[in-house]
Amino acid sequence: MQVIHGVLFLVAYLSALIGNGLIIFLITCDHRFHTPMYFFLKNLSFIDLCYISVTVPKFILNSLMHNSSISFLGCVLQVFSFVVFACAELAILTVMSYDCYVAICLPLHYDIIMSRGACGQMVVASYISGVISGAIHTTATFYLPISSNKIYQFFCDIPQIILISDSRLNIGEIGIIALMFSAALVCFAFIFYSYVHIFSIVRRTSSSEDRSKALSTCIPHLIVVTLFIITASLDYLKPPSHLRSLLDLILSVFYTVLPPTLNPIIYSFRNKEIKTALGKMMHMEIFKSNQFFWND
Asked: Which residue ranges traverse the bilayer (predicted)?
């Protein structure tokens, strides 16, 4: 079973690497994609690569080598990095919803509001918020001594670490989780508010082609956000248990593995411009590989 789990996670990890790596490469190399929407998408792909690389490679290695251990320092670094990229991803997804809102609801002011400097500041603020959240969470999680060395999860999950601390009632970390959950709700409420206005504008649009284009851009993003926030919230807010259940594993996979793996598929590869650029790149590579070179 360990080998099967390792292989399944390896397939998901390679899919995330290839999908997000292609998006970063295409957006970086093609000047047609140097727009705010694709700038945010490239940062989302980068965060996804880092996010899934924090937990999955270690689990794959442990599964294939029939090992289930991690050092204390490695656990601390894993918790810090996981929170950093999770919070940064939520912030970027919120910024992307704002970009969609401005593009559809305020098109005449789009170039002014979403200027190059403003986009850069939003991305930097997303990363900074992730680093601050990671530092606070890690400090609160490991503030109390650990009384056991068994974690019933495939990575160092904060609720499981709280469970094995000397005092299960870790007021500091519980308070921070409540605060972060409130922040996540604010982000989700802002995203929901943006899409209410977006769908209201789209519904009044006379052109079916414009409606289809707007919905194909917005709905996948809304699916990703909903899946990410709901599964993470359920896992962190439910009472932790020493008994490892299938529900714990499914919830953790839903917010740690699936978003980075599915983001390129449900959000990016449905985009006609990206698919066209990818097709051209593949055609050029095939054409080059079929060329003959003659030596005199």
From this structure: 6-27, 39-60, 80-110, 122-144, 174-202, 214-234, 246-266
